[in-house]
Amino acid sequence: MDILFITVPKLIVRSPLLGPATLSAICEKNGFSTAIMDINIELWHLLKDKHMEHIWGEDDPTFMSQVKFNQLVDEYIEGDIVNSWLDTIERYSPVYIGISVLHQRNEHATRYLINKIIGHKNLCHCKIILGAPHASVIGPNLLVDNMITAYVSGDGEEAIINILNGDYNQPGINGNDPVQLKELSQYPYPNYKNLDLAKYVKSNYGVVCEESLPTETLFINSSRGCIKRCNFCDVASRWPDFVSKSGEQVVNEMEYLITRYPQINKFSFTNSLLNGDVPALYKLCTILNERKLPLTFYGQWITRPRKVLPPEYYDLFKSAGLTHLIIGIESGSQKINNDMKKGVCIDDIYYTFEQLTRVGISSTPLFLIGYPSERYENIKETITLIKNMVPYKTSISSMALGPTCMVTNGTPLHRDIEKHNIRFSSNSGWSWFNENSDFKTRIEWWFEVFDVVVKSGFRVDHRSTTWLNNEYDTIAKGQYTPAQIANISREKWQ
Length: 494
Known about the structure:
pyruvate-formate lyase- activating enzyme; 5-stranded parallel β-sheet
């Protein structure tokens, strides 16, 4: 076999990853043999049988810590299960092994598997490739240490074919300038041919449901990049341009997938913005209504004014099958939204939720606490916004309070640290301070906002404690402990 794509934990379990399935289809179109091996879902089932599936919960950071990952390996993973993975890889006899490293959560498992492969007498000859966003973080060191053959930065559709042809000197490979595709419709639909979709679990917008096999959801993508340039976000560094498929192209892909996989009736869009290209979205929904396809879909959204998304558009979106939106609100302060370069008017926020409530589309608004220019008076404006959203409670399934504002590489904010007088107290992207706030202060603000969310009667999104568990011992103690926050989250979702 030319290439075996491997998905390693900790990743979502409601659907196989879109990236390996797409690359598999592209490789086979170019004459290369492929297969996909999903260790992530296999391990989830193994640990589920041991009543340890909770580590896949968003509020459990087990895989984020090398120490905890090692403990997990020692107690539950090492032994027969690892040998079975290696035996499976050996049976495929791949020339190349491609591993998706999406983020820090599956970095430890990636390093672990690589060490097992290169230490195996019958697999040490395999050439290992890393892809997905976090590959650019760990890839350079692994390449220097001769643990991998190549890593891909940016879009991988063209890079993977160059690698399989033995050409590692092309854009996007091993530190060369990353590639962003300018045309997304030229590639084949994703290939899940050797994956058992019945192993994946249903979820309620990220919350794994009890006794919920099999999944009804597949990922789909209609655009890359973003029309916004928010200062705290690194999307523009990965995709400088916003590129979108046509509405008809996306519907054709949906129709193909639900025909080939009849159990699928729901699509989760991986776009940064589902409504980045409004004409394409309008066309997509118009065609869905015309064809009367038995499906629903959800994705990420930005608030936009009435003149861009008039009320009749929301009626169309609802009738086409749009069920849920994740919406980046970030702040109730117009000043802070302007400082973030979000290009959002507070009035547009209220208009958006008025329309979602009217047509019956649920949502999860996201908030970001502690932007460098933010002061306590701005936090109070966010609190006022949350209280004013109570009339729209029927359409707000939960509110998500993400980590306090991080200053991370690849963001405009990181490039402007001098402008904001930012100084770092540790290597953590959270541990910065300036004249407006420090980490302790931002955590105190976070707890105050959380308290208002709860007392206003809103559900707390399951992601609200992902980061807090790691940091709580070294930060201010608030009214709620991480465990209490997690319990509130779980109880509200039951």
